[in-house]
Amino acid sequence: MTLLKNTLSSAASARRKLAFGLLALTAVGGSLGALPASADPAYPNKPIKMVVAFAAGGSTDIVARSIGVRLSEALGVPVVVDNRGGANGTIGSDLVAKAPPDGYTIMLGEVGSLAMAPGLYPKLPYDPSKDFAPITLVARTPLLALVRTESPIKSLAELIAKARANPGQLSYPSSGAGGPNHLAGELFNMQANVKTLHVPYKGGGPAALSLVAGETDFGLLSRVTIDSQLQGGRARALAVASDQRLPNMPTVPTFAEAGLPGYTAETWFMLVAPAGTPQPIVDRLNTELTKILPNAETKERFAAMGAFGVGNSPAAATAFLKSELAKWTKVSKAADIRLN
Fold this sequence. Notes:
CATH topology of the largest domain: D-Maltodextrin-Binding Protein, domain 2
CATH architecture of the largest domain: 3-Layer(aba) Sandwich
Structural class: alpha/beta
Strand content: 15-25%
Largest sheet: 8 strands, mixed
Number of helices: 13
Radius of gyration: 26 Å
Helix content: 40-55%
């Protein structure tokens, strides 16, 4: 009887060990499945899709096509721009967030979909801080504080003084609720201690036209949006919302120089890949892009848009994205802006 009990006990023990072993193998298998993909040593060996989460012809599309041609030459494979517009850039961004992390789907993201959207959309289907691997900050386009030429306001200081003297009376246009122009205006309200009225339009073009037509009092618009009005003498720039002056507008002071230190508001463009993209692929793309951005032709095309190239490391791009997320989430929360 004792021998029988010992035999049964040994058999039960063996079954328990087998079960624990199978559980361990399952856990290991699961963890291995979650590891990042290995880099293909032959990368790239087929076309790369560069998603632009906006329609063709806009500033993001222009920047993407400017770098895409030269990136294709550097890598030896086609880099195809794929426009996936809709919902302020969130549709295309979500597409890339869920794409295979193999280096063949990348995105030229911008401030709205990468840094502003999380504070605006309660049910955003992606998390910029977790779902993307930043490759490099490609370019920055500072917004300009502007008035129409006939406006009696001649400087940023005068604009702030008039806004303080007339709370809620001065208005500014935007290309749409929740866009960079809108949040830039709310940031201006916060930092200048003023209250101005936001007027949304359907696109940058109508917003610029509203300013020169006198429908709105001042604007915070990009150079590419207002360029024809500036060139035609119908608008006047008061300050540039950056820490440095624009090369092709050397007489326009920065906000700090004009009396509002610490204020910056830019439309910026960052190349990202899906999270989990092997680091060698991220580094390869970064290396090629940082060679492209100082190119004279690229710099000239950017300057015409009121932009300047950056080209930093993946780590620096990640840190920049983190800081911009915090900045614009704070603004949208303080202004109580939410979009569906």
